[in-house]
Amino acid sequence: MSVEDGGMQGLGRPRQARWTLMLLLSTAMYGAHAPLLALCHMNGRVPFRPSSAVLLTELTKLLLCAFSLLVGWQAWPEGAPPWRQAAPFALSALLYGANNNLVIYLQRYMDPSTYQVLSNLKIGSTALLYCLCLRHRLSVRQGLALLLLMTAGACYAAGGLQVPGNTFPSPPPAAAASPMPLHITPLGLLLLILYCLISGLSSVYTELLMKRQRLPLALQNLFLYTFGVLLNLGVHAGSGPGPGLLEGFSGWAALVVLSQALNGLLMSAVMKHGSSITRLFVVSCSLVVNAVLSAVLLRLQLTATFFLATLLIGLAMRLYYGSR
């Protein structure tokens, strides 16, 4: 197996150890995101503007990439700066920006629980676009593994956690909201399909771009996050009156921004040296971290559905990455 398939057999032990550590750190950061956001709440709401957090996260990524190039952690390419190769990353930034904003608009047309369950369809859309765009054929065994991964995500979203003393399972912290009936409008369904397609396309397109360009990863990230900062700066400025850029920020909020910035850099390494499918497994495995942290920090209870989801994720990993 190659690194792109998620395998480790072609790597020496030091590189294999670094790769494994990187995936574990990314899984932990993904899983910690929702619990950390919950710890930021004051009077039941986030005290800062979401657009501020996204903008600061993109800016932190950009500064870290620039710093790594300046200190020589990654070599600058010889010859004239390849600025022409920066243009394609504008589309990546636009796709990621559209995806992040669609998540907000989707909440108007469906309840949070429905969104959490159905959004797992992006696993299927990513796998489909991965095969079409990168001409990578998945075996029946691998297809079954991704189907199990979708099922695991849906199970966890449907009731992996519950409030102590509550008979009915509750959605994960990221989906926590005031009680409302399960519902989805026709427009909501269309937007959800669009969200899943854009999510898969942004991941696969960025992977294709990073692998085709023979540029240092830090420079590619510099291009990507420059467009990301400009795009999110426009979104922040156009979002109307509200708290200032740093207003309402606490130590927990700063930790959210830093962890998301570092995780974004780790994910870019996965896209360049691994694959979009590897990213899907990282995100799915992070559900386990999310649940454990939610139980410890937010005093939510794990349900039988959580253990079923964990079992399905483990089985999916075994099917996809196991010896064939």
From TrEMBL:
Record flagged with keyword Transmembrane: yes
Q: Which UniProt keywords apply?
A: Membrane, Sugar transport, Transmembrane, Transmembrane helix, Transport
Pfam entry (one)? Nuc_sug_transp
- Chief subcellular location equals Golgi
Q: Where are the transmembrane segments?
A: 20-40, 52-74, 86-106, 144-163, 183-205, 217-237, 249-268, 280-298, 304-321
Which compartment or compartments is the protein found in? Golgi apparatus membrane
Q: Which InterPro entries match?
A: EmrE-like (IPR037185), Nuc_sug_transpt (IPR007271)
Top-level taxon: Eukaryota
Specify the protein's topology with respect to the membrane: Multi-pass membrane protein
- Keyword Transmembrane set for record: yes
Tell me its family: Belongs to the nucleotide-sugar transporter family. SLC35A subfamily.
Q: What is this protein called?
A: UDP-sugar transporter protein SLC35A4
Native species: Saguinus oedipus (Cotton-top tamarin)
